[in-house]
Design goal:
about 375 residues, Aminopeptidase, 2 domains, 13-stranded mixed β-sheet, about 35% helix
Length: about 375
Amino acid sequence: MPDQPQLRALRRAAMDTPEQIARWQALALRASEPNPFHESWYLLPALRALAPRRVRLLCFEVGGELAGLMPLVAARSYYGRPLPHLAGWTHPNSFLGAPLVARGMERAFWQALLAHADAHAGWGLFLHLADLPLSGGLAQALRDVLAEQGRRHGVVWREERAALASPLSPEAYLEASLSGKKRKELRRQHARLAELGTLEVVRQRDEADLALWIEAFLRLEAAGWKGGAGSALACSPATASLFREALTGAGAAGRLERLALRLDGVPVAMLASFRCPPLAFSYKTAFDESLSRFSPGVLLQRENLAMLTDRHIGLTDSCASADHPMIDHIWRERRAVGRVSIAIGGALRRAVFAQVLRRERQVVWA
């Protein structure tokens, strides 16, 4: 008799072994919804650097193979309110909360997750999934399972962030996105910047000089407003460590693309992206703010439109907040993500959740 599907809640250390990492990465390659922030090379460093001890990795196995994975935490507060709940674990440097689920296993995974939440609710009043894509096979499977089980739920927050997905060439896309006046201004800024020295664009998908690139990025970001505000990656040993480990791991896994605009060999704008076909994710960008009059960050994004020529990538997620002042004016497509709260446990717990949900501003899940 074949092995029955099972879902286990494991500590990080149990999955931080070569054998388990290999299984984990095999799952990532066949995931229904690609999510670099839940791949082993990103999530393990994040857990080591940032996670409370109570985070567990929910591992869904079918026939002995890893078919689903998601970090889960018993949270004590809900966006500042004292409402204990179970939640998919995220952090400020994780821009997507979708679990990794093997194609074809979406419904089975959600069924197992909800059953686990029912049985291990503890003090939790409900299950909360943040930064979840609101379209696609994974989202549709969740909606189907919730409808079949008659579970009360609500999309309590939604945003549409900029995305890049078009059959147009980079040149045609830029022409459709920006006015002739703005394109002329970008050409002028590029020419003026080039007058200061040798200006070059360097795109890399290998691991050559990666450690040097990482340190250059950290310095460039810290030199700008984020450094002054204390929010640059380098301002915290934990986030600096995460960035170093994540980019090193992404490079080794063939998931990293680096783009830099260099003036006399010195980077004036940098962008790190994760490639998880058929999706890509613009992870972190930085530019030299002393050269703001030349718009080096925008000039780099003009070069980044080359993503449109990558036959393996159908959509690039900006990972930016909605209405971002720069990227929203260049990238014209949008990707909907949201927060979904779901009833769990017995009748009394669900009755309490119903009262909580009534106080939320619910939006349409579409």
